[in-house]
Amino acid sequence: MIRLSPEDITTFFLALGLLLGSARVLGEIAIRLRQPSVLGEIMAGIILGPTIFGGIAPEIQQLIFPHEGNFLILFEGLTTLAIALFLLVAGMEVDLSTVWRQGRTAGIIGTTGLVVPFSVGILLGYLAPSTLGAEPGASRLTFALFFATAMSISALPIVARILRDLKIFRSDLGAVIVAAATLNDLIGWIVFAVILSLMGEAGHGPGVGMTVMLTLCFTVGMLTLGPWLMNRMIPWIQANTGWPGGILGFALTGALICGAFTEWVGIHAIFGTFLFGIALGDSKHLREQTRSTIDQFISFIFAPLFFAGIGLKVDFAAHFSILLTLNVILIATFVKLGGSLLGGRLCGLASRESWAVGFGLNARGAMEIILSLLALDAGLIGERLFVSMVIMALVTSLCSGAAIQAILNIRSGSRFLDYLSSNGFRSHLEATTPEGCIEELVGVLSKGSKLDRVRVAKAVWERETLMSTGLSNRLAVPHARLEGLKSPLVAVGFSHVGVDFNSRDGFPTRLIFLILTPAGEHGTQIEILGDIARTFHHSEMVEKALQTNSLTEFRSLVRTHEPDQPDQSRPSG
Amino acid sequence: MIRLSPEDITTFFLALGLLLGSARVLGEIAIRLRQPSVLGEIMAGIILGPTIFGGIAPEIQQLIFPHEGNFLILFEGLTTLAIALFLLVAGMEVDLSTVWRQGRTAGIIGTTGLVVPFSVGILLGYLAPSTLGAEPGASRLTFALFFATAMSISALPIVARILRDLKIFRSDLGAVIVAAATLNDLIGWIVFAVILSLMGEAGHGPGVGMTVMLTLCFTVGMLTLGPWLMNRMIPWIQANTGWPGGILGFALTGALICGAFTEWVGIHAIFGTFLFGIALGDSKHLREQTRSTIDQFISFIFAPLFFAGIGLKVDFAAHFSILLTLNVILIATFVKLGGSLLGGRLCGLASRESWAVGFGLNARGAMEIILSLLALDAGLIGERLFVSMVIMALVTSLCSGAAIQAILNIRSGSRFLDYLSSNGFRSHLEATTPEGCIEELVGVLSKGSKLDRVRVAKAVWERETLMSTGLSNRLAVPHARLEGLKSPLVAVGFSHVGVDFNSRDGFPTRLIFLILTPAGEHGTQIEILGDIARTFHHSEMVEKALQTNSLTEFRSLVRTHEPDQPDQSRPSG
Predict the structure, then answer these.
(1) How far is it, in rounded angstroms, from Cα A533 to Cα A485?
(2) Predicted complex: ipTM over 0.85
(3) CB contact, 8 Å: A555 with chain B?
């Protein structure tokens, strides 16, 4: 019996820990820079892999991330599992009913957004394979098919996240984008499955014709019978097994078995988990809590391991070709925008909206990366094109959100936490009158800034005397708009004796926010006030806040209890 | 570069799916029989492994669960990861403050509950190693040390679950049991770590003296500095990183790195994850949601894979020795009860309570199984003793809950769902008056039973006329106690027009429960009524219930929204 040695286990755990930790840290930095976290996660792998760490200290890099032996088998197995489970979550995001609801518009844009990139892709791939980075020995047709698919697929999970961030997920335009992306994804993956089976390695799987037939039957079955079956099975499982173990076990078991099936058929395991995810996620009986347990553990633990693993696999510096990368990015963007604009014109969308749809569908994110990795593993493309595809997927995703925001002129909502200044926290206010509290908080804020203490306190107090800002729930929000202020400033203080802010419910005020906003920006003040009111809607939350002792503890509390916002929930049931 | 073949991936996914699925199904059956689910999970492995499946169809069993090659490496790696993560969760259950709070009592019982089994164990292990199943070549001293540890460790996670099920987790006695078990576990594992390092394989780890020293330093550091550091780091992480990705990433990264460290030191990775779990779980800043995401995914996905994997590893039939098993069970139980009774007497506990503590600490559960598996892998014990130890761990866990319940004379609480009869669901009541509804529901219940329709309806109506059972929230709970009824019966019906039950808030009643209980049992009726009121405390829940169309959907809804019960939450913070 083969046994893992203690060295194998040490390496395995250490490598996983280092990858996960750095993926998280760099992912967080990416988010700070308003970029998708997947960018940071891939960077973590590039840094720890052959590109940087391996370039500086190849021996130590090899010691921690061996390129051979049991570690490699373990790591490949785990990342294969990770990506299959990530596709389960991606499938759960797919909402078939959105497609039906948007009917004609989604159908047209989904079709043109797929057909245009695919046709142009197949043409270019066939005519100029070497310019596009095909390997010398590759079959022209197979390469053209791959390139066409790579140009066509959008990244539904990324698209959905961008739309949610911009709060237009539930708008008509958002639904059109999501529906079109869903169609793109579904058809694109099916086409790719067929390609994989066409080039099926000899001796594996049940033969090309059989593979195609089984794939189509399985797909149709999962999309029609699947949801129907789930709607009957999930209530039964929830009614008769332990909660939430039963439903979690069912979800993972089903995904694994479907993955094993599609892998056996001759396509990849991810198709099985993806289709199972669609059927599972479609059920209105699946509880939000189950979704989020599966989603969080997989998205935050498994997916980063997979993406960091990509950087570990390939030397990004050695295989980087600026020309090829630019070509790929430009072609990908042009064909996707072209297809969407054509579709938008056909169904009478305003030109501005068509552009937004185009940039929405242009986000390639994780999907194109996974596609390219499969093609790389199958020997269909070389590392040079792989690197270009990964960069293309990242760049198109980076641009997508910003472009939609600019085109539709959307301002992102203000959270008060973003403006809470680092010295704007006072856990024990000394003042016992509203005027005193305001002066104390203004004093705190003006430390180290150019604020004119007296003038600001006067402005806030004048506003306060017009109408008290004491809300219910022991909360008060004195505020003022100031000429010359560049960006909003917020301070918070706790009174442990209570101050009479003439509150609505008559109780003395304990939690006092001072809010200063630039004179021009009317909306910001209202947004910040609304955000504070929502955050401290429950008196329980006020109680917890009063118990925090530092700005960090206070921020930690607020950030882990984000108020519910109707737009952030799922589109259906 | 080594690559996993499609066959490897197919086998890997299929095997994981089958194991997880059958572990879940058999785990559920175990729960139905009021046994811990780990029993079913191990059974799943025994059925799919060499014992049963392999006995019937060895070729097919080998095909699905190969005994060699990449699959075995993958499976070993994944189960090692699974058990290390399971120990992370087990560590998070440890609450050091309970130990401090129970101070003297916990200290005394924890000590005697450890010292007595350990001394007797070491004596027996040294004097009669072959009777106790030591391998012929094994060192007498090392074996005696292992046997002593195996007799001493309790299974804190199982103990905690049993006490929670019995709703005495928060009682003084519950706290004493938990505190003593925590002490047992902590010291027992440290001793075992020392044993492992003593027998450390040549050439691995930094040498025995160094191993012991590093182990002790790490343990002391994690138990003292650890919680202090966590209390500073967790708020910072929650305040400055994405939620919940940041904290989840931190928890898993930390566990993996600590696991790699202890594995490198020469003991096992599980010690590192366990100690990290204790430090992490101790922090009051860790949110309940984070705990449950980690706990659920690991307990319901990773842990079952590990336990099912045990059955896959060993042929339980071939290595089963009834004499050895009986010996092990009897010795384990006697020494643990003896130690607890002695401790109980020393600190003046009532004899009944001492017995309850003894049976509580006697539950060995997962811990003894993990310990034995490590000993088996290390070549310290053979498969015969391993099988006996696994059975001992299961039997002592099975007896623990029932014994405590009998000794303390605890009745388990009644949930109305347990008595909802299979034909007691009516989604459209035809009646429009209270009396009509009662008659209709009685009619439904009496179908196929010996209930006297007229007499029962009369009894319920008489009770109803005394004082209306219409509650607020569109709920009514007509009920009666009946002579001759053996066990409670509940029926539920929805009125879509609303019925005037003279409800407290004046709204017409839509959701009507009929509750019949045996005349003698006063408590049951009150418990069922209370349970219904708690379950439908929020009007939202009533709305959702009214939308269900079958008994299965209704049960599914109620079971996935268990009402909060103060006793089921964590002991602290």
Answers:
(1) 23
(2) no
(3) yes
